[in-house]
Amino acid sequence: MPDSTKERAAAGATLPRVEPNVRTFRLKDPPGSPSAPAATPERAFPRWLGALLPLVLLTAVIGGVVLVKLGPVHLFAGLVALGVVLGFGWILASAVLPAAPVDRTCPACGVVDGLRPAHEDTTRGVACRACGFRDEDASAWMIAEEDGPLESVVLRERAARRGRSASPAPNDPR
């Protein structure tokens, strides 16, 4: 397959008219060229499964209507009660059970409690106390949250976005 304009013209291909000072780009590389992407990545689930999803949801709605219209009242009431209990149980478990502790292990040196927020005034970026490793793109939100209240940090970030200087919160223990 010819690559240059001259080779395509010599091969008899009609060339589109190009205005002067206009840059043109190939939108897609031909298959097999070095810059063409490799094989497409595998999907998490088969494509045909996505086509069945509307049918499954429609069946669930029809089943719910049939249950309400024709089914026994105590079965419908039991399913509604189960939904309410599961919802409140989820909220209660989320509020009462603690989250997993933050992993502060440094990826560079392996010190277990080495990472800290890179900057005091933001929750972006982490730094290692032991080896000096820095990652400015990593989120330090969870680490900063474990270290203390985040109100002053959030207020400083918000003020920086608005272009003002922020004053610390009146009851900030830092």
Map the helices and strands.
Blueprint: H1 5-10, H2 47-70, H3 73-96, E1 115-117, E2 124-128, E3 134-139, H4 141-147, H5 151-162
Antiparallel strand pairs: 1-2, 2-3
Description:
By secondary structure, this protein is mainly α. Among the domains are: 47-96; 100-169, no CATH class. It has helices at residues 5-10, 47-70, 73-96, 141-147, 151-162, and strands at residues 115-117, 124-128, 134-139. A hairpin with a 5-residue loop joins β2 and β3. The longest helix has 24 residues, at 47-70. The relative contact order is 0.06.
Strand content: 5-15%
Sheet with the most strands? 3 strands, antiparallel
Q: What is the alpha-carbon Rg in Å?
A: 30 Å
Q: Could you tell me the mean pLDDT?
A: 77
Q: Give the class from helix and strand content and strand pairing.
A: mainly alpha
Concise synopsis of the structure shown:
With 174 residues, this protein is mainly alpha-helical.
List keywords for this structure.
single chain; 174 residues; mainly alpha; 3-stranded antiparallel sheet; 3 strands; flat
